[in-house]
Amino acid sequence: MAAADSPSAALRRRDLCSRGIRLAGKMRSDVVDLLDTYVERQGLDASASVAAVEGVPAAAAERWDEQTGTQRLLENLAAYRAFRTLLAQMLEEQREQLGDADTALGRALAAVLLQVSAFAYHLEELLRLESRGPPSEEGAGPPPLSHLTLFEKKLRGLGVLRELAQWAVRSARDLRQLSKPSPGSSSAPSPAQSP
Amino acid sequence: ESHIQYERVGADVTMKCGSMDWDAAVTWTANGTDIDESHLNGSYLILKNVDLTQSGQYSCYEGSSWHLKYQTYLRVGLPPKEPVLMCRSNSYPKGFYCSWHLPTPTYIPNSFNISVIHGTREMVCEKDTFPKNRCHIRYLQLFSTVKYKVTLTVTNALGKNFTTLTFDEFAIVKPDPPESVVAKPVPNNPRRLEVSWQNPSSWPDPESFPLKFFLRYRPLILDQWQHVELSDGTSHTITDAYAGKEYIIQVAAKDNDIGTWSDWSVAVHATPWTEEPKHLTTEAQVTETTSASTSSFMPPPTTKICDKGAVVGSGAVAVCWTAGLVLAAYGVLFI
């Protein structure tokens, strides 16, 4: 891990982390706006409870403070790759429903998809810096939705966006942890103090 | 036999004198004072439409022997109304606390039971020793979309009531106000005030979970606040203060990404720097100095020699250090 520990690598890591934190913040803000648009255009109740959706990576983490930097990056990357596919699926469904009409919802979905893709790439860069390199993308895509009713698809979309909003917050936190000075990227940051 | 009896305000209460027959001759006392026979029905004590003032110790004595046959402590009170519950995280991501109170008193002891459910998991809420109406929950998960459901049940001898709060992890995050707010004038700057503060000590990890701040300030003579939002750092320089006016300044904090703003900090007061007015004594000393004998010439310490500002009034002459030394030297020569 000598390359990962070099001063230039450390500077590059901090720079990537800072930019990543800004990206995550912008992404979160846009996802929150997209959620409002989605709820309104899909005729949903904003407070509707959505059960855990199959294939959607949950942002919830136990012992989050004990994760290593590499674990954080890998979990984030897996999540954003999944969201990239899920959002593309939602966009496709949107277009199927409304034809080629360039709706505000469609545009907002496309914009967030772009940011998710950019963030995934950003994470890959950070992993390359860790001399680990990003893992190859898994071949299996999201589960097919043809068996779901239109309403179930809408609820699923709500679940996807809510989870993405949580991930955007978590990612900013993960990158802040990563940008802290530490002995090595694979060592765990100090856990949160107990009460 | 002594025990406690709880009755609702407005109730009609009948007390039996233990195992004594209805027609036994007895005397009832309330807090040691005999109760009038008009309140008796045989040996039974009848209290109609009881109120809070009738709480106390009631004793029944056998008529002739004055043996104590029965004693009870009557507590008049009310069943609990729906409690008021609030939950907040001022120590994110460590945990959150919930606190509660009753909107109106019951006047009798109450017990509280709180349950915290997150998804399918029941979490432990550790009760604080002080204050007693508060408990803490440690986060077992972060960044969860699953809501927390907190149910508080209050029970007393006359009834029970409950309330439920449901919230997201992020929604209850509210830091304590910033601490150690200090505001100081900036020397030679009549329109500036330097403000600094510290993160609230209850916020466990400001490096990983940075706070942003909101500063508000106004001169005491005006009602309208100026606001500044600051995304990093724990200091700020106000550059548009009105010269010479005393200001009141406060700061609030919020997690950079989630939750709500804290309450405002304790207010601090400060007045921007102002130039000191010229002192009359300085002028007089300059005049005396210039008219004194050169042999004893010594510039006064408060006078700025060669400073234009130190020269005031007609007739005063500014004397440079160099000239003064020369004159002093001549003075020595001529003594």
TrEMBL record, chain A:
Alphabetically ordered keywords of this record: Cytoplasm, Developmental protein, Differentiation, Growth factor, Neurogenesis
The keyword Cytoplasm appears for this protein: yes
Family membership noted in the UniProt record: Belongs to the CNTF family.
Domain of life, source organism: Eukaryota
Annotated source species: Psophia crepitans
Pfam families linked: CNTF
Listed GO biological process terms: astrocyte activation; ciliary neurotrophic factor-mediated signaling pathway; negative regulation of neuron apoptotic process; positive regulation of axon regeneration
Function: CNTF is a survival factor for various neuronal cell types. Seems to prevent the degeneration of motor axons after axotomy.
A cellular-component GO term for this protein: axon
Single GO MF annotation: growth factor activity
Comp. bias intervals (Low complexity): 179-195
Protein name, UniProt field: Ciliary neurotrophic factor
Entry's localization field: Cytoplasm
TrEMBL record, chain B:
Residue ranges of domain Ig-like in the record: 10-60
Transmembrane regions: 310-333
GO cellular component: ciliary neurotrophic factor receptor complex; CNTFR-CLCF1 complex; external side of plasma membrane
UniProt keyword Coiled coil present: no
Keywords: Cell membrane, Disulfide bond, Glycoprotein, GPI-anchor, Immunoglobulin domain, Lipoprotein, Membrane, Receptor, Repeat, Signal, Transmembrane, Transmembrane helix
InterPro entries: FN3_dom, FN3_sf, Hematopoietin_rcpt_L_F3_CS, Ig-like_dom, Ig-like_dom_sf, Ig-like_fold, Ig_sub2, Type-I_Cytokine_Rcpt
Pfam families: fn3 (PF00041)
A Gene Ontology molecular function term of the record: interleukin-11 binding
Limits of the Fibronectin type-III domain: 177-277
Localization of this protein: Cell membrane
Membrane topology: Lipid-anchor; GPI-anchor
Superkingdom as given in the UniProt entry: Eukaryota
Protein family: Belongs to the type I cytokine receptor family. Type 3 subfamily.
Name of the protein in question: Ciliary neurotrophic factor receptor subunit alpha
Gene that this polypeptide is encoded by: Cntfr
